[in-house]
Each structure stands twice: as structure tokens, then as C-alpha cells.
Design a protein that fits this description.
Strand order of the largest sheet: 5-8-9
Order of helices and strands: HEEHHHHHHEEEHEEHEEHHHHH
Strand content: 5-15%
Shape: globular
Distance between the termini: 38 Å
Radius of gyration: 21 Å
Largest sheet: 3 strands, antiparallel
Length: 465
Amino acid sequence: MIKIDEKITPRGLENKILKMFEISAEKIDRLNKTWNFENGSPVFTVHGSFTTRGWTEWTQGFQFGSEILQFDATSDKKYLESGRDKVFRFMAPHISHTGVHDHGFNNVSTYGNLLRLRNANGFRGDAREKDFYELAIKLSGAVQAARWTPLPNGLGYVYSFNGPHSLFADTIRSMRALALGHKLGHHLLGENDEKINLLKRILQHAETTARYNVYFGEGRDIYDLRGRVAHESIFNINNGSYRCPNSQQGYSPFSTWTRGLAWILLGYSEQLEFLQALPEEQFTGITIGPCDTKQAFLDRFLQVSTAVADFYLKNTPADGIPYWDTGAPGLAYLPDHLDKAADPFNDLEPVDSSAAGIAAQGMLRLGQFLQNKGLEVAGTKYFQAGLTIANTLFDRPYLSIDDDHEGLILHSVYHRPNGWDYIPENRKVPCGESSMWGDYHARELGLYLLRIIDGGPYYTFFDPI
């Protein structure tokens, strides 16, 4: 169980965050010199060097988005120009990519960040540049929304790259693409010119994910623990009936892959912020399950966020860094592993620092949301948990200080069941490597905290857009 540091403050983390961004600049510079774009997107490191992994090209937006975040955090225009140039050159196919559930990863991290900065007067750009970003985001949100499996009773979901039968926990964070499209006044046109409301699609997908990928301790099956997350839900698309939980990257359908839980935690927490900012009338006429008002949807999203946050707090080691799956079999042979700091160098099961970076931001946003609602005790608990995780993540042995290593945050894991992750010589499990998504989310977490420290505008994906 995480030992929440109740005394740590964002200001107390400032030196660590600034050091992280200092190292981040060196890592970006190194990768820019060494990466061959003909190889595709960098995914994770092997012996300290980024490599590709042909599954889907879901990390290119994190590569270029990292440069944009580096500019946002440091005002070094070199990274704005470099990142913006690569977005223009390489990202167009991702806007119209019909084969993935990753638009929120690729396109919000690039076009979304650029539009946000453009609107905030972070840079001027060309006269029509804002229009270009807006069009890219509108199309991305609509293309993502069109990857749709309808279910009975008004439910449905954006299906994963596995096909129309597959709902991933990850995809809740791609709802950001639909959210930005909606905020820009866009909608998807379907058969017979049907106008498809992007906000409604977000709410439908979120309710379906909540029902089938998240557990609430209500006896759904014998493994129904409040806050547990199934990575994948499988449906019979002939009649829309739910069939079973599954896991692509976790140990089993009945344990919790911690990065999948982290996606849920951050995805719902930032959508809480988005829904809260919308006018009440935009929810008029939308009924999904028991929810038919803005407040009802907010309550449902909050129910999900707090459930998974509490599960994370209970099932993560004392320092806030989780092992890759809460049911990983080797954990049974790591005595009292939840009562002490995670050990990335153990010989039984790897940790996943990328899950920690994602979850930390989710905790902070959830805590801030609750504090803004006057729920100070609960909000402070989650916010301090986020700070506790960040304090661990932005320090050794997770912050990479080796000049010869291209990664920023060490001890990330991609796909343990498939054995894709590099195991160093004389080791038995993966350790010491980085991932493009882990590094990006560490930078995003650092930027979020810098905004709070500096008293700047609160950092969200949708404002000012």
C-alpha cells in the first residue's frame, strides 16, 4: 500500500522537475541525432537505445509531442520548431488512420498541444496555422468516433485494433480526440447524413467501459474487487452481448494490468475536468443508462475514478511504483512487496514506471477536482498520493542520468506476456529500459506540476481550445 507523504508539496518537487526537464532536453537531442524515421516510430529501448516494435504506430505522437511539451515547460523554441516541423512532415497519416484506437495518443499529443499553445499565445505561427490544427483535430476526432461498435440500450464503444469485438481500457484516453472535436463544434456524419454527436459518443464509450472494464465490488464474478480493471472486454457483435473479460498485456483477465488501470484513472479524471467545463445545455437530450444530466454523468465518472484510484493505492508498493500486474505470479514469492518500496531489480516480476507516471497525473487531477468541489479530505488524499508517486519517479533509480541511455524514465515494461521487453545480461526479468509513452507522460506530469508551482493557468488538454 502506498505510504502517502502528507507533507510534500509541488514546490518541494520543483528542483527534481527542473532536473528532469534538463535531462529530458539531452535525451530529445540524442534521439533526434540517432533516429532513422524510415524505421517507423520509436517504442522502447533495448540496451539503452530506442527500437521499433511493429504492432501499431501508436507512439509517434509521443515522440514529437515530447518536444512540444519540452518547449511548453522551458520556453526553449528549438523544441517547438523541431517538434512542429516533424508534425507537419510525418503526422498526417495518423489523422485519417481508421485502423487504431490511438487518436488521443497520437494526435492530441501533437496537433492538440500545438493548438493549445497557439491559442495561449505560446507562439505566433503562420496566419492559417490555427485553422490547420483545428481541421486536423476535427478530422481525428471524427475518424476515431467512426470506429464504432453499437450495443443494445444505447451503449457502444470505440473498438480496439483487435477488431469490432474488442473494447480496451486504454481507449478512454483517446476520448480526448472526440472531446476536442466537440469543443470545436464538429460532429461526425454517418449514413443518410446522420449527425453523430461526439460528446454523446464519449459518454456512451465511457459508460460501456465503466460497466465492463471496471469492477465495483458488486459480485459480478468471484474476482470482483472494487476498482479492479480488465484490460479488454469481448463482445459478440452479432447481438451485442458481453462475453468475457480478457487481457492482451496483463497476466490474466482476472488480475489487473496496472498500466490499464492507470489509463482508466487518468482518462476518467481528465474527462471529469472536461465535462465540468461544458455548459449544462450540451447534455440536453442525452440519456445513457441511468444518466441524463450533466451532474449524473459527473457522478458516474467520479465513481469510476475514485474506485480505480483506491485500488491503485491499496495494491501498489509503498513508494507508488507498481509491479506490472497485481496478479503476476512471482509476486507471491516477494514477501511483503506492498509494504516496502518496489524493487525494479528483483528476479521475479518487473515493475512498470510508465504506469506510475500515468497514474500520478490521474491522482493529481482527481484530487484537484474534488478539492474544487469542497471535498478537501478526499481531494487531499489523492493529490498527495500523486505527489508521492512523482517524488519517486523523478529520482533514481527511475530518472535516467546515463548520457548513453536514450530513455528518460527507466524500468518501463511494454508487453511482458509476449516477452518483448529487454532483459539485461545476468538478469531474469526486464529492467533498466524506457518507453516512449512513459517518457512522454513523465514530461506531461512535470508540466502539470510546474503550472501549479508557477501559479500559471491550470493545464488541461482542452484549454485554451
